[in-house]
Design goal:
It catalyses: UDP-alpha-D-glucose + 2 NAD(+) + H2O = UDP-alpha-D-glucuronate + 2 NADH + 3 H(+). With 438 residues, this protein is an alpha/beta fold. The protein has 18 helices and 13 strands. The strands form two sheets. Strands 3-2-1-4-5-6-7-8 form an eight-stranded mixed beta sheet, with helices on both faces. Strands 10-9-11-12-13 form a five-stranded parallel beta sheet, with helices on both faces. The protein binds nicotinamide-adenine-dinucleotide.
Length: 438
C-alpha cells in the first residue's frame, strides 16, 4: 500500500519503519526538518532498540521518503496515519493544537484529490474528538463528506518506548474503530497478520479503550507500590506477596471483578480494606489510592440513589437485599445501605429477597435483621407479585435467574426498572429501563 505518516516521533517513526519493512511505500511527514533529514540519511529520529538498523535498511530500500508537503503526501498515498503529539496542558486538559492544525491541512489537501483516501488517527485522542472536531475540520476544509468521499478511523497504538518494534509486531490486540467497510478492509490488510485478536468497534469506543488501558496500567503500578509500602511496614517481602497475588489467575489476574455493576459489599472486602487502612495510619504509611477505595464505592452507591430519586416516585419496590445472589448475608450489603438512604429520603419501600425471607423463617439471619436493621425487616414482603403491583419503580439489585424471571414476567408498560446488575435481558424489559451507569 502507499501510506503517509504525519508526525515522526516514537509512534510515527516506528510505524514508518515497520510498515516499510512489511512491504509498503511510506512517506513520512513532520514539521521538524531535523527528523526528516535523519530519516532521509537512514538514521532513526528516536532512540529505540532495533531502529538504527531498520531505519538504515528502509532508507536504502527506496520504500521510505520524507516531505514537509501535506498535499504531496496525500496525493501520493491512499492511507494516512496521524501520529502527532497530544500532550497535557498546564491544567491537565489535552493539548490538541497539533492534531487540529493538521486536520485543517489534511482537509485542504483532500479537496483536490479525486481518489478515495482513509485517514487513520493513531494519536491518543479524547473520546469524541475524531467524529467531532476532527471530522468537522476535514469536511469543512475539503468540501467533502466523511463516509462518502473519504473515510476516517481510529486505531489506538499500544507500543511502549524501549521495546517499540517488538510491541509493534506483538500487540496485545488490534483495535480499529471505523464506520466504513473500506477502512476495515485496508486496516486488516495492514495489520490482520499481527498476533492478538483484531477487534472492530465504533470510533468512540476505540478512542476510549486506549485511555482506560493506560489508566489501568497506572492503577496496577500504583496498587503494587502501595502494597509494597504496606508490606515494608509489616516486614513482609512485597515481591513474594505480589508474585502470589499474580499467581491467582482465577480471581486476581483475570476478568473477575472487572465488569461494571453495583457497589461492592459483604463481610470481607470493606472490613479488610478498613483494617489495612488502620495499619497504614498507625505506621504513618500513606496509601492514597487504597484509602479512597471505600469512598469511591460510596459514590457508586450514591449514583443509584440519584437515579432513583430523580424519578420522583415515593413508592419503590426493591428486589434483592443481601450483598450478592445466592446468599442471605446482609452484613455490609450495599443494598441495605441503599434501602436506608432511600428511607432517609422519605421513600416508602417494599423489599423482596427470597434468600433473606427464608433465612428469617429458619432463624439464620433473624437476629441480625431484628437487632441491627429492624426498620428494614418490617419492609420485607414475600409476595413479589404484590410488590410489582403496588410499586411502579422497581430496583433490581440481584442477578438471580429465578428472581429475574419473576420480575420480567410482572413488569408492565407503566413500570420503570432501575437495573443495578446489567440485566442480560434488558432489551426485553417492558416499561422504562434505566441502567445504573450504562
Ligand atoms: N510514545 C508512546 O509510547 C506512545 C504509545 C502509544 C500512543 N502514543 C500516542 O501517540 C501520539 C504520538 O506520540 P509520540 O510519543 O510519538 O509523540 P512525539 O512527541 O514523540 O512525536 C510527535 C511528532 O509530531 C510532529 N508534529 C507535530 N505537529 C505536526 C504536524 N502538523 N505535521 C506533522 N508532524 C507534526 C512533531 O514534530 C513530533 O515529531 C500521542 O498522542 C501519544 O499519546 C504514544
Amino acid at each position: 500500500m502507499n501510506i503517509s505518516i504525519f508526525g515522526l516521533g516514537y509512534v510515527g517513526a516506528v510505524s514508518l519503519a515497520c510498515l516499510a519493512r512489511d512491504g509498503n511505500n511510506v512517506i513520512g511527514v513532520d514539521i521538524d526538518p531535523v527528523k526528516l533529514e535523519l530519516i532521509k540519511s537512514g538514521q532513526s529520529p528516536v532512540i529505540e532498540e532495533g531502529m538504527p538498523e531498520l531505519m538504515a535498511a528502509m532508507a536504502a530500500s527506496g520504500k521510505v521518503s520524507v516531505s514537509q508537503d501535506v498535499q504531496h503526501a496525500i496525493d501520493n498515498s491512499e492511507v494516512s496515519f496521524i501520529c502527532v503529539g497530544t500532550p497535557s496542558q498546564a491544567n491537565g486538559s489535552q493539548d490538541q493544537t497539533a492534531v487540529l492544525r493538521l486536520a485543517e491541512q489534511l482537509g485542504k489537501a483532500l479537496a483536490s484529490k479525486s481518489s478515495h483516501h482513509t485517514i487513520v488517527f493513531r494519536s491518543t485522542l479524547l473520546p469524541g474528538t475524531v467524529e467531532g472536531s476532527l471530522k468537522s475540520l476535514l469536511e469543512q476544509h475539503s468540501g467533502k463528506v466523511d463516509g462518502r468521499d473519504f473515510d476516517i478511523c481510529f486505531q489506538p497504538e499500544f507500543l511502549r518506548e524501549g521495546s517499540s518494534i517488538k510491541d509493534y509486531d506483538n500487540p496485545p490486540f488490534t483495535i480499529v474503530g471505523a464506520n466504513s467497510e473500506t477502512a476495515h478492509v485496508q486496516m486488516q490488510r495492514l495489520f490482520g497478520h499481527l498476533p492478538g485478536q483484531y477487534h472492530r468497534t465504533d470510533v468512540k469506543t476505540a478512542e476510549t479503550v486506549k485511555y482506560f488501558c493506560n489508566i489501568f496500567h497506572a492503577l496496577k503500578i500504583t496498587f503494587a507500590n502501595e502494597v509494597a509500602r504496606l508490606c515494608e511496614g509489616l516486614t513482609v517481602d512485597p515481591f513474594k506477596v505480589m508474585d502470589l497475588i499474580c499467581a491467582d489467575k482465577q480471581l486476581n489476574i483475570s476478568p473477575a471483578y472487572l465488569k461494571p455493576g453495583f457497589a461492592f459489599g459483604g463481610s470481607c472486602l470493606p472490613k479488610d480494606l478498613r483494617a489495612m487502612q488502620y495499619v497504614a495510619k498507625q505506621a504513618d504509611i500513606e496509601i492514597p489510592m487504597l484509602s479512597q477505595v471505600l469512598s469511591s464505592n460510596q459514590v457508586h452507591l450514591q449514583q443509584a440513589c440519584k437515579k432513583i430519586l430523580a424519578l420522583g416516585s415515593r413508592h419503590i419496590g426493591m428486589v434483592g437485599l443481601s450483598f450478592k445472589s445466592g446468599t442471605d448475608d446482609l452484613r455490609e450489603s450495599p443494598l441495605v445501605d441503599l434501602a436506608e438512604y432511600l428511607i432517609g429520603k422519605g421513600m416508602q419501600l417494599s423489599i423482596f429477597d427470597p434468600e433473606v425471607n427464608l433465612s428469617r423463617l429458619l432463624g439464620a439471619n433473624k437476629r441480625f435483621i431484628e437487632e441491627s436493621i429492624p426498620h428494614i425487616g418490617q419492609l420485607m414482603t414475600n409476595d413479589i407479585d404484590q410488590l410489582l403491583a403496588s410499586n411502579k419503580v422497581i430496583v433490581l439489585g440481584l442477578n438471580d435467574k429465578h428472581l429475574v424471571e419473576q420480575v420480567l414476567a410482572g413488569l408492565t408498560a407503566e413500570h420503570t426498572l432501575i437495573d443495578l446488575v446489567h440485566l442480560k435481558q434488558r432489551a426485553d424489559v417492558r416499561g422504562n429501563y434505566i441502567g445504573l451507569c450504562w
